[in-house]
Amino acid sequence: MRARCKRLGVDLFFDSRREKQALEICAPCPVRTECLAKALDERTQHGVFGGATALWRKRLLTRRPDVTSWYALLVKARVVHRHQQPEAE
Ligand code: SF4
């Protein structure tokens, strides 16, 4: 429901000539972490998901074959990151 691409056609996210545009849409998306985790967990081989190109995801999967749940890893990393943010002045 909160996905920034909700009302956009999917073609944009599968058109390599428009990858930059798709990445710009993903960048501030509130469900980016979940979207990226799903694409990684499902080994989605095409398209831009979660602010990552298919090539970038392939490299990540190759580098980390030990990860069984990207969802668990990325959500945990987001929580840890949030707790490490400096206090607002
Ligand atoms: S991060 Fe995922 S849900 Fe959000 S705009 Fe990109 S493709 Fe759509």
Short key terms for the protein model shown above:
binds iron/sulfur cluster, mainly alpha, 47% helix
**Major β-sheet profile:** none
| Rg from Cα | 14 Å
Helix content: 40-55%
What is the tally of beta strands? 0
- Tell me the distance between the termini: 33 Å
The stretches of 5 or more residues where confidence is low (pLDDT under 50) are none
Please report the number of helical segments: 4
One letter per element, helices H and strands E, the order comes to HHHH
Distinct small-molecule ligands in the complex? iron/sulfur cluster
Estimated structural class: mainly alpha
Number of domains: 1
Mean pLDDT score, rounded? 92
What overall geometry do the principal axes of the alpha carbons give?
Answer: globular
Question: What percent of residues are in strands?
Answer: under 5%
Describe the structure.
- The protein has 89 residues and is mainly α.
- It has one domain (10-83).
- The chain is 47% helix and 0% strand.
- It contains 4 helices and no strands.
- It has helices at residues 19-26, 32-41, 54-63, 70-83.
- Helix 2 (32-41) packs antiparallel against helix 4 (70-83).
- The protein is globular, with a radius of gyration of 14 Å.
- The termini are far apart.
- The model has no long low-confidence stretch (mean pLDDT 92).
- Iron/sulfur cluster binds at residues 3-5, 13, 25-26, 29, 31-32, 35, 49-51.
Give the topology, please.
Elements: H1 19-26, H2 32-41, H3 54-63, H4 70-83
Helix pairs in contact: 2-4
The structure holds iron/sulfur cluster.
In short:
The protein has 89 residues and is mainly α. It has helices spanning 19-26, 32-41, 54-63, 70-83. The model has no long low-confidence stretch (mean pLDDT 92).
